[in-house]
Amino acid sequence: MPAVFVLIWSTGFIVARYGMPHAPSFKFLVMRYALSIACFMLWIVLARVEWPSGRRQWLHLAVTGMFMHAGYLGGVWAAVKLGMGSGLSALIVGLQPVLTALWLAATGSKILRRQWLGLVLGFIGLVMVVSRKFGTGGEANWLNMSLIVGALFSITIGTLYQKRFVTSCDVRTANTVQLGAALLVTLPLAALESEAIRWHPELLGAIAWSALALTLGGSSLLYLLIQKGAAASVTSLMYLVPPVTALMAWILFAEPITLTTVVGTLLTALGVALVVRQPKLT
User: Fold this and answer.
1) Which is nearest to 261 in space by CA: 144, 125, 85, 135?
2) What separation, in Å, do the N-terminal and C-terminal C-alpha atoms of the chain show?
3) Where is average pLDDT lowest: 4-13, 74-83, 164-173, 221-230?
4) Is residue 74 within a helix (H) or strand (E), and if so which, with residue range?
5) Is the Cα torsion angle 18, 24, 25, 30 positive or negative in sign?
6) What is the band of 233 on the pLDDT scale with cuts at 50, 70, 90?
7) Whether residue 2 has pLDDT greater than 70
8) d(CA 262, CA 246)
9) What are the beta bridge partners of residue 162?
């Protein structure tokens, strides 16, 4: 499941590039959430799945939905809408394991020398890539950088919160509650967007893939992996997402890949790999 999840997850940044020229970011996400909820509801009715029990569980699921869907996706989609490329956005939010390690260090967990080296390498690699894309004419600016960093913090907080507070329940009903909370948060933001939706085959394809593959597939797999304690297996492969996304963006959108970008991305990937690598048991 971790390998399949990472492959699906990598396409999310590509889908954002396909959909954003034809719709504002939050209106796109409202359509994605609504379609996903409709599909899950049909699945729940046909399978006669039980809903989570207790108000506290619903509240915890709603909180994770606001962070892991509304906050994370809202930040990524808005950053891409404002000109950030798929490769750079994937690289930044791909630092989630590094941010998690820093949080664990701040809360008293022991961080190995190898992991500290990974933190340094990941930061150096990110600075190398961002420095080439920042400034006049570049794809990075203070606004979209703030949005993508907000998305990084949101997915990290949501993952830690879900692991700590959400008890095991059916993935279909859990995702529906999470998406419902994300929809409620996103609707007011979508109402503020003045840009009209332009119905285009690329937009329709992006919405369908976002709802069916990314939400029903990717988010469900992430929920299951966290609940089964396999989050480490996911993060151990997450460092592959930025280079794969950068390659796909180069093929599909002609996003430039310079030597500095390659070296910086590889350094970041190596840094994340050092952070999340599990020690060998003897």
Assistant:
1) 125
2) 26
3) 221-230
4) helix 72-81
5) negative
6) low
7) no
8) 9
9) none
Query: Could you tell me which of 278, 276, 272, 273 has the C-alpha nearest to residue 123?
Result: 272
Q: Would you state the structure tokens that stand for residue 201, as one six-digit string?
A: 């085959």
The residues, ordered by sequence, that sit 6+ positions from 51 with a Cβ below 8 Å of its Cβ are: 170, 173
Q: Within a 10 A sphere around the Cβ of 122, how many other Cβ atoms?
A: 27
The residue whose two tokens read 């150096």 is 124
Question: What is the spatial distance between Cα 146 and Cα 182, in angstroms, rounded to a whole number?
Answer: 20
Strand partners, 140: 134
Q: Which band of pLDDT confidence, cut at 50, 70 and 90, is reported for residue 135?
A: low
127's tokens: 């600075």
Provide the pLDDT for residue 282: 44
> Which of 236, 237, 226 minimizes the C-alpha distance to 175?
226
| Bridge partner list, 134 | 140
SS3 230: coil
DSSP label at 66? I
